[in-house]
From TrEMBL:
Any one Gene Ontology cellular component term annotated for this protein: plasma membrane
The species this protein was found in: Terriglobus saanensis (strain ATCC BAA-1853 / DSM 23119 / SP1PR4)
Transmembrane segments annotated in the record for this chain: 386-407, 457-481, 552-569
Name of the protein this chain belongs to: Membrane protein insertase YidC
Summary of the function given for this chain in its UniProt record: Required for the insertion and/or proper folding and/or complex formation of integral membrane proteins into the membrane. Involved in integration of membrane proteins that insert both dependently and independently of the Sec translocase complex, as well as at least some lipoproteins. Aids folding of multispanning membrane proteins.
Keyword Plastid: no
Length: 597
């Protein structure tokens, strides 16, 4: 019987071998394709990195055959084992952003500011003011650089060549971004500009995928600091939950961390400031920066006086600050410009507060602030020139005080009428020593006498008591408002600076002497009166010789008005009676002295 075989088993082992051959061929082809792709295909890049690489082909272009080897940063983008692309620029470049208020020049080295020109303000040479302090920027870093708690990383970030989103000259509103990626470090800095002094910053930094606390910084100083004393006006300004804090330069601790919540934090000098306003106050964090620099180093870029009165080389404080977020992603608005109350009052923080408290009117701010508002009103609606505004404002103040001066004169006359009786009381107690308890009885009798006759012992001092706070408040206010900086009035070119020719101080001394001469001083010892007649002019002359010429103008005009008012009042029946009583008293004292002789 013929043997029956399964046709599926025919060929047995040879058929299995024939099937393995095409399978191996397919595997070989697939493996070859994979190997080919790995050799000739670049890794995928993030969209932003691809965009930046397209704009900067020299940073990532492959080397031509026979050309010199590329740098590590350039060849890393084509390395098969590189996890992330390197994004760096091949050379330093600049980008300029401007609006009607400023012109800011960025460099891609560190993605920081080279110059920050304020178009409406001038320096002492008469050219538009550069807000960047050249000496401080050279030593400690430029504005909008990054600060970290690792000095080596901070230095790396400041030297890195970022890739800008755009170069050349731009007009706000505009957005400018800088990107840097190398050795596991990835940083993106984005700035948005509008028509105001404000700009918005967005900074993200990471290392090997982990967030890095990179704070955006204004390391310190401003371009208007030309003299040693200019640095002593620097302050660190901050606000937390509506509570403001003004820290004098001498009390600023370098490297101290300020934890949130922070409404704002910044550094200011006499007239200008740079303030960071975080988008997320609760997670904001800041660092105070305090450095010192030898003035000799500043002389390369400024005409600053380099020695102290003792002849030693001077060092000046450089105050700065930096703001970040604990998450590593910093978002904040930045105000860089004049400390103008009218402008700062319109800049709101995330919590609804304003930047107005940055203008510190001093201890008498409760008086100085209303005075500034009133002076500003006069300048806007009466006299556009600030010097004439001070003159008009001084006249108005003295007109308001005139009724008080008349009441003071009446009180002085009553005091003069009672003077013989008060002298008699004093004579009865003259035998007692000053420390004797009986002297208290003498003072009680005099006070009762004044009370019975309706005399207020402080009545003659009321105008002085009112004028003194006004004078101190004006002294503080006139030196701190940027509106009076470089304001002209005849020979005065800056009402916040001293009179260069000392004309007003001389007028001040003469007018103050005449005020003491014409002003009646009932009950005051003649020797004391003579002493005051010389001390007050000397004091006022010293104050106006060294400080704000605006203050000297206010004080001089006030004195001249007082002299005219007092002269007119002295010609009135009230004034004539006062002079007659004073003359009788003087004759009586002269006769008494001659009789004793």
């Amino acid at each position: 019987m013929a043997e029956i075989k399964n046709p599926n088993q025919q060929g047995g082992g040879s058929d299995m071998k024939s099937m393995l051959v095409p399978m191996l061929l397919i595997a070989g082809v697939l493996g070859g394709l994979q190997f080919y792709r790995s050799k000739h295909t670049q890794p995928l890049q993030a969209p932003s990195a691809q965009t930046q690489t397209a704009q900067q082909p020299s940073a990532v272009a492959p080397a031509a055959p026979g050309a010199a080897p590329q740098t590590t940063a350039q060849t890393a983008t084509v390395g098969a084992t590189q996890a992330a692309p390197v994004v760096t620029a091949a050379a330093e470049q600049t980008t300029t952003i401007e609006n009607e208020l400023y012109r800011i020049e960025f460099t891609n080295r560190g993605a920081e500011v080279k110059s920050w020109i304020l178009k409406r303000y001038k320096d002492n040479k008469g050219v538009p003011l550069d807000l960047v302090h050249a000496g401080a920027a050279r030593e400690f870093g430029a504005p909008l650089s990054l600060y970290t708690y690792d000095s080596g990383l901070t230095a790396q970030l400041r030297q890195a060549l970022y890739v800008p989103s755009v170069t050349g000259k731009l007009t706000a509103p505009q957005t400018l971004s800088f990107t840097y990626s190398a050795n596991g470090l990835d940083v993106t800095k984005t700035f948005r500009f509008d028509e105001s002094y404000l700009l918005h910053a967005d900074v993200v930094a990471s290392r090997d995928g982990s967030p890095v606390r990179a704070l955006i910084a204004w390391p310190g100083g401003f371009g208007d600091q030309d003299q040693v004393l200019d640095y002593n006006g620097s302050q660190l300004e901050s606000s937390s939950e509506g509570k403001t804090d003004h820290v004098n330069f001498a009390k600023v601790s370098g490297g101290k961390t300020l934890d949130g919540p922070l409404d704002y934090v910044g550094v200011v000098d006499q007239f200008f400031g740079a303030v960071f306003i975080p988008d997320n106050p609760q997670t904001a964090t800041a660092v105070s920066l305090h450095q010192t620099i030898d003035v000799e180093k500043l002389k390369r870029s400024t005409a600053i006086t380099s020695t102290t009165p003792t002849g030693k080389i001077a060092t000046v404080p450089i105050i700065g600050t930096a703001l970040g977020d604990v998450s590593g992603h910093t978002q904040a608005r930045i105000y860089a410009g004049p400390k103008s109350y009218t402008i700062l009052h319109t800049v709101s923080t995330t919590g609804g507060e304003t930047l107005a408290p940055i203008v510190d009117f001093g201890f008498f701010g409760i008086v100085g602030k209303p005075l500034f508002f009133a002076l500003h009103f006069v300048q806007e609606h009466v006299a556009s020139n600030w010097g004439w505004a001070i003159v008009v404002f001084t006249i108005l103040i003295n007109l308001v005080l005139l009724p008080l001066r008349i009441l003071s004169m009446k009180s002085a006359l009553k005091m003069q009428r009672l003077q013989p009786q008060m002298d008699a009381i004093k004579a009865r107690y003259a035998k007692y020593k000053v420390t004797d308890p009986k002297r208290a009885d003498m003072n009680a009798e005099i006070m009762q006498l004044q009370k019975d006759n309706g005399v207020n012992m402080f009545g003659g001092c009321i105008p002085t008591l009112i004028q003194l706070p006004l004078l101190i408040a004006m002294f503080s206010m006139l030196q701190k408002v940027v509106e009076l900086r470089q304001a002209h009035w005849f020979w005065l070119h800056d009402l916040t600076a001293a009179d260069p020719y000392h004309i007003l101080p001389i007028v001040m001394v003469v007018s103050q002497f005449l005020v003491q001469f014409y002003m009646p001083s009932p009950g005051v010892d003649p020797q004391q009166q003579k002493m005051m007649a010389f001390m007050m002019p000397a004091f006022s002359g010293y104050m106006t010789w060294n400080y704000s010429s605006g203050l000297a103008l206010y004080w001089c005009i006030g004195n001249l008005i007082m002299i005219v008012q007092q002269y007119v009042m002295n010609q009135s029946p009230l004034g004539r009676e006062m002079r007659q009583i004073a003359a009788k008293r003087a004759r009586r004292k002269t006769q008494t002295i001659q009789g004793k002789r």
